[in-house]
Predict the 3D structure of the following.
Amino acid sequence: MNHPQHASNTIDVFVINDVSKNTCINYPQHDSKAVDVLVVDDTPENIRLLSIMLSKKGYHVRKAINGKMGLTAVQAHLPDLILLDITMPDIDGYEVCQRLKANPKTSDVPVIFLSALGDSLDKVKAFNVGGADYITKPFQIEEILARVNHQLALRKAEQEIRQLNAQLEDRVKERTQQLASANAKLLKLALCDPLTGLANRFSFMERLEQALHQAKNDVECQFAILFLDCDRFKIVNDSLGHLVGDELLQAIADRLQQLLKPSDTLARLGGDEFAMLLTHIAGIDSATQLADRMLNTFSQPFSIRQQQVFISASIGIALSSSEYEQPEHLLRDADTAMYHAKASGRAQYQIFEPTMHTAALQQLLLETDLRRAINQQEFVIHYQPIVALKTGKIAGLEALVRWQHPTRGLVSPAAFIPIAEETRLINQIGNWVLRTACHQLSFWQKRGFVDPTFSISVNLSACQFAQVDLVEQIIQILAETQLNPHCLKLEITESAIMDNPEAAAVILEQLRQHQIQLSMDDFGTGYSSLNYLQSFPMDNLKIDRSFVQCLDETQDSLGLVPVIKMIAKTMNMKVIAEGIETTQQLIQLKALNCDFGQGYLFSKPLEAEEIITLLASPVNWRY
Ligand code: C2E
Ligand code: CA
Ligand code: CA
């Protein structure tokens, strides 16, 4: 053991144990890379001793013999720790420490002050200038190593914490970004229609509200909304599949978008419904011109998966006015106008008028009235003769319902069948018509007014097809009235089948098995007629009045009648021409070998009594 002399300005290391032999004290080992310790001391002997001691322990020691050199050494290479003498010429240790701490690059390096015996150690000052620790003379090697290691461990922990903090910050940043993009996606979902990328109902209503607000503040500011609904879109979905349906909607969205100005809003409200908001328009003409262009764009087929798909659309228009307080009311009115466009034959536009509301109200009253009529049995049937064109004899009758209204008089089916269908009251009415007509024919047969081949035609509407017990009902009525099923002809339109083709196929097959005859009504006015004729075989085909009207004096204008007749022939169906009003039409139809005819030329629909008279009169329709 050494006890060196203590002189002023000299510093000695007081070694308790021989460091080289010391194996008892284990200080934490730092990184595999040697720890860099800078010793700043103006006493060479101190530097030497500290250097030997620390080097032996595996530290990499650098030396500086004054404050200035120390600062330069720190700048050149950042040490892990500094042992700094306090009393030095020029710049003392406090000053060196202060400068190091003032510089962000060097402020983190821990500084342990070395205080010689003669130094006036100001502990408070040492800490105030940023010192981490101090060691006083006589130095003991264990103490130095303990303090150095302690500081290094502290620094390492600090660095780790800082690193963890940085990682944490990064993670928070990353999560924040993820959240922000998730939010953006959610917002898009909330405001956009996912199929077409257009605005959805919610954002459309918001924009509509803004437009309404603007118009309230500025009377000059006019806008309009267009409500567009595709006609018979369900058929596309049912026949070509939902994927094609979806692609068609996207294609429609694209076409509509192309017709709009950037300031206009196009939205998909759901299903096959679209809405457009046209702001700052001069008047209704801007809206109707756009509606015309839209209807026109639908006249071209859409190419979807190598298929040409034709579809039309109906449009309702509502123009802004000071009376509107809520955006919903505008949309409701455009919707009402759209329904009127559909009811007027589809593929057109209608502008909303307040009377449309009255019409809706009237419909409601009509419904109530209709329910009463069913209870009071206010319906009557008129029968219209169907004539065999070859013989000119009446071969059967079509039963056509009328409403004997207590105040309105005789109401035509066109005025109440649509609402009866909408409210499903048609099921009751239809059942009554069927029973009464079958009963009537059975009665006439029994009385010998007609022969056993004479038939009665009864119309079946689409929603009657939706009844699960329809076939049972019919069979029961036939049994009740003791009518031969072969004498009953059920008239069905293509659209009735198209509303639910699968169910219709089953019902039609069952009816055929029961020998009941089937007629395709209004042929040629429905959708893709040929396809469905093949899948739903019928006994008779009724050529719609519109085709018969085309028959004129000249051969050139036979229109489609010869083609329809040909189709019927190849499919083994009898043809009934409807709405024959002139002898000319009759002559043409006979020339085309049409089997049956029906129309005012022969007779209007008549009451049962009148039919007996007619049946008794001699045949007068031979041409
Ligand atoms: P529909 O089945 O096409 O019946 C033929 C319609 O054409 C009848 O109108 C008939 O009076 C009319 N008509 C017949 N010949 C001529 C003609 O030469 N010229 C003109 N302009 N019209 C002619 P109606 O009786 O007003 O019936 C209209 C529609 O109401 C029927 O069309 C049918 O769809 C429906 N309907 C009538 N009765 C019933 C029924 O009991 N049940 C169901 N579901 N619908 C019915
Ligand atoms: Ca009919
Ligand atoms: Ca018809």
Summary: The two ends are 149 Å apart (CA to CA). The chain has 21 helices and 23 strands.
